[in-house]
Amino acid sequence: MTGGFGSHRIRGYIEKNFGLYLLPKLITDSYPAVKSLMLNNLLGNQAATQRTNKSSTSIFMEKDMNSVFRQIDTEAGRDIAEKLGIEFDEGESPNKKLNMINKDSLVIRRSLTLEELKRLIGRVSRLEKARDNFALNYLVPASKKRLKNSELIDDLVNALREGKTGHFLLTGENYTAYYSEADNYILKDEAGKELLNKTEPIAFNDIIGLIPESERSNTSLQIMLKTWTIAAFGDDGSIVLQETKVIDAIQGFVEHGEIKMPCILFNGLWYVIDDKYADSLTKDYKKVFDSSEPVAKALTEEFELLNDKASNENSFNDELRKNKRVLVAHTALVNYIEIADAIFWDDDSVYLMHNKNEFNGQGARDVVNQVLTSSEYLHQALSSSDAQGFLERYYDAIKSRYEGKAVPFNKEEFISQMRSGKKFTYVIGYMDGPKRNSRSTYAKYLTVDAARKLEAKGDKCMIMGLK
Description:
Elements: H1 5-10, H2 18-26, E1 34-41, E2 48-57, H3 59-62, E3 67-76, H4 78-83, E4 98-102, E5 106-108, H5 114-127, E6 139-141, H6 149-161, E7 168-170, H7 175-180, E8 184-188, E9 194-198, H8 204-208, H9 218-227, E10 229-233, E11 239-245, E12 250-256, E13 261-266, E14 269-273, H10 278-303, H11 313-320, E15 327-328, E16 333-334, E17 337-338, E18 342-345, E19 349-358, H12 361-382, H13 387-400, H14 411-418, E20 423-432, H15 441-456, E21 460-465
Parallel strand pairs: 19-20, 20-21
Antiparallel strand pairs: 1-2, 1-3, 3-4, 4-5, 6-14, 7-12, 8-9, 8-10, 10-11, 12-13, 13-14, 15-18, 16-17, 18-19
Helix pairs in contact: 10-15, 12-15, 13-14
């Protein structure tokens, strides 16, 4: 219990997030105790957020998988105080609350006698061994696990030198806005010289391709990541993506150390899956897998979706064109966005299928970004005054991919189904996987994240194997 210079002397021995780790042992995620909080935002324009609530809310209401709690101020009732061995005096109001600050430390705003402090320490010691009621953060800053930023940058550079460019995706601050709202994309080097000026989105492979393989040294790649900038603008001069360093505009992952710990890069900041909540993540992933399995089985039987002949996602989609109950939309883009690889429907849902080769970090990252972008763009388009025009243009793009061959459904049928009010179900298919006991922590995280985000929009999400 020290601050100032003393905190620097002990920081190598303290447990990071100790106060935050205690919270899921004290309360449930529905317990109304949150008064204020500070969090890091993995995506979006604001790197960090701090807010205070007029009335106490629950962790469930505040939680977002793209945010990482740094500090939570709670206002708990007597039931929580009792768990900590704290007793209220008879003269205190029955409505008296226990105010706590949960961060690296646990701060309790209350005067305690020495005996009360001893009892509190004993209770906290026992609480540490208790089971968590929920997972607070799946991700924590890599620095909390004593991983140095310089080491992870080295891992990133090594991955690029080894040709693992597919591990990274240029997303900007908002993936959907970057791909659909800009008309001009500009990449500049460290001196401000334009390297690319395009009317279609600049991808990460476009950037890395400017450096010949023979010249991809540690230095040249570090310069590219840390000093080159990318920006995106609308035709009217509006800023869609302000001038941003490349490393702050990409999303991806590296595997660190001998144990190949997945370290995730979000807009310039590194995060890792918190091993304290790895079991909770696996449990949540298995819920998605188990709920998907019977639906996938029914759909594959009704729509004949499986194909053992296809060797990859492209050949699978090509083979799917022979299916007269499925509309194949693969490579049919609207504003550079792929709404689906395949579309089909029944009495209850319109199914939007997105396919990838393998259920791993790279495959899940790519397909989840596609799915979430599709959902956001589709809802915006269908609620706009141009909904009919959007669907007509999209159908025409799909029809052109059939290259004169018969299309299973006409334009009127397609538009009628897309505007029927049926729930959209996103089907995420993998040629290899997914498996219930998958060991890809990053892929599991992305799957759970996608399911929660789609549910929040009123859509459904399911995963399935395609063989």
